[in-house]
Amino acid sequence: MSTAMLAGSRIQLQQPAGLGGSRLQRAAAPVAAAARLGSVRPAGLQARSTAARRADRSALRVSATASPEAAPVKLSGDDLKEANRKHMRSVFDFDLWKKHRSSSRYLRHIVGLGESRIVSGLMAPLTYVMTLSLAVACYNAAAEAGYLPVFPELKLATNAPFGLTSFALSLLLVFRTNSSYGRWDEARKMWGLIVNRSRDFIRQGLGYIPPEQEELQKMLVRWTVAYSRSLMCHLRPGEDLRVELKDTLKPEELEALLASTHRPNYVVQVLTAIIKTAQLPAAVTNNRDSTGCVPAGAAYRMDENLTVFADVTGGCERILRTPIPLSYTRHTSRFMMIWLTLLPFTLWDSCHWAMLPIAGIVSFLLLGIEEIGVQIEEPFTILPLEVISRTIEGNVWELYRMHSGEALEKEQAELANGQDVQVLNAQDLVALMAPSAVGNTANGTSRKSLVVNYGL
């Protein structure tokens, strides 16, 4: 007996031996899992009384009140840096763009330097450079006062290597930052493509899937929303796909998705099956009709969007699993730390105690450039993917509410009752405005009925 473990739960489904069971048995497995999870009550299980449930809730409240609240964990170092990445998911509107362009940004950014995530992320190397600078300054001051012996000083000869290597260091930093930004920009463009293709995919589905297959239209919308959510959870650590989709997919659908290993691929395959099941317009070939080939391409065009979904999934996985060649990152870090370690030894003769703030500022500026490149190298935990997913969800459900078979039924009921039509279907709008091109509306209602209700 082989066992298939449902992702996100501890329930095991016993699979028949041999070839893995019939297709019907495999299709029924998610439903059985949902039943065991509680969405369907097993036979013989009696409902508890209302009084018993109230007693349980009362005991739970007493227990929660008696137990002390857990103290919040104070993060520091790399843990704080990782936790702060979610605060980098900026979504701009008109007011934020106005603030972003404001001339007050210079003062605002300087005043907010203490709260900078770059400063907190660089605290360890900055502390090292400042401690070394302080030690060098104390030694030179003691040596000039005669308390310590004076070692051979390197003055002009020491400055020469800095002038020769600063150009190479700047090239490394520029390459590092530009490469990281290119990865961030590519990831954002791919998610923008998901938004565009999701809208186009639902537009095509609502236009070509007949209104009689209303449940299929609705399923198409649900699983299109599920694609962006599942890809987001696929690219981020710590995300819970069950929580993300519990209000989107039906319980059986959610359990089937969670049982898969590669969730985005499973979603695309379900969308493919929906297209295959839908009664899309048959192929029409007529040499006298120049538009006769348009309906024949419905399934092909919709499948093109799914191909884009698959390409985006692969592109995001490539960015996630392949960093900038590690030799660049390692050599840049080594180069910079050696350079900053030797920097304090060259500043005392010209700056004396002023070398402390100068060394700190130079270190912050150079290390900050490298830190920005490292932070944006992996873009998916700093991009606002949840906001993009909500945008997709809102857009596709709006299309469904206006142009689906359910919307057509609602419109027909409003017309039959003599009510004003609240939302006019796109096909009906064409029939209303171009009566010579279309006889009746999409739901069979005459143009006269729409004219009367709209007062035209």
TrEMBL record:
**Main localization category:** membrane
**Which InterPro entries does this one have?**
YneE/VCCN1/2-like
Bilayer disposition of the protein:
Multi-pass membrane protein
Subcellular localization = Cell membrane
Give any Pfam family that matches: Bestrophin_2
Q: Which GO terms describe its cellular component?
A: plasma membrane
GO molecular function per UniProt: chloride channel activity
According to the record, the segments passing through the membrane are none
Keyword annotations of the record: Cell membrane, Ion transport, Membrane, Transmembrane, Transmembrane helix, Transport
PANTHER family, sorted: UPF0187 PROTEIN YNEE, VOLTAGE-DEPENDENT ANION CHANNEL-FORMING PROTEIN YNEE
| Name under which the protein is recorded | UPF0187 chloroplastic
* Record organism: Chlorella sorokiniana (Freshwater green alga)
